[in-house]
Amino acid sequence: MPMTVEPPLTLDLEPGPVPPLVAVRQWAARALSDLGEDHLVAVQLIATELLTNAYEHAGGAHQLRLRRDREPCRIVIEVDDGSTVQPAVVREADPRAPGGRGLAIMDKLTGDWGSRPRPGGGKTVWATIDCTSYPWEPCP
């Protein structure tokens, strides 16, 4: 069966000291309201993890994109930032530390993730969530 790819859903982000996590979750919920609940929650979690990492390690994010493939049901989440430093490798988090679990969560929940340089500088960090990989309620 051929893959059906829709145009990306794009959210431009304003610079600031704090990532707009609640706004991103609400935007994703509106934009992907027909996803199964588990798939949507996974997309929201990964989008906020990518965004948090961009703010903590790359000086903020410029844009968030959601790319949707309908057959199979898959969402690709992309976050652009201005840093050329690639994400760190996944490591075991210190259980006493308040952070350091984002990449480990992303690695467990996504089918694939990575980063690529952007023309003109910076990078895009992306992750794919494929609902056929989990026993989730199927997407319509």
UniProtKB/TrEMBL annotation:
<dbReference type="Pfam" id="PF13581">
    <property type="entry name" value="HATPase_c_2"/>
</dbReference>
<dbReference type="InterPro" id="IPR003594">
    <property type="entry name" value="HATPase_dom"/>
</dbReference>
<keyword id="KW-0808">Transferase</keyword>
<feature type="domain" description="Histidine kinase/HSP90-like ATPase">
    <location>
        <begin position="22"/>
        <end position="128"/>
    </location>
</feature>
<keyword id="KW-0418">Kinase</keyword>
<dbReference type="InterPro" id="IPR036890">
    <property type="entry name" value="HATPase_C_sf"/>
</dbReference>
<dbReference type="InterPro" id="IPR050267">
    <property type="entry name" value="Anti-sigma-factor_SerPK"/>
</dbReference>
<keyword id="KW-0723">Serine/threonine-protein kinase</keyword>
<protein>
    <submittedName>
        <fullName>ATPase</fullName>
    </submittedName>
</protein>
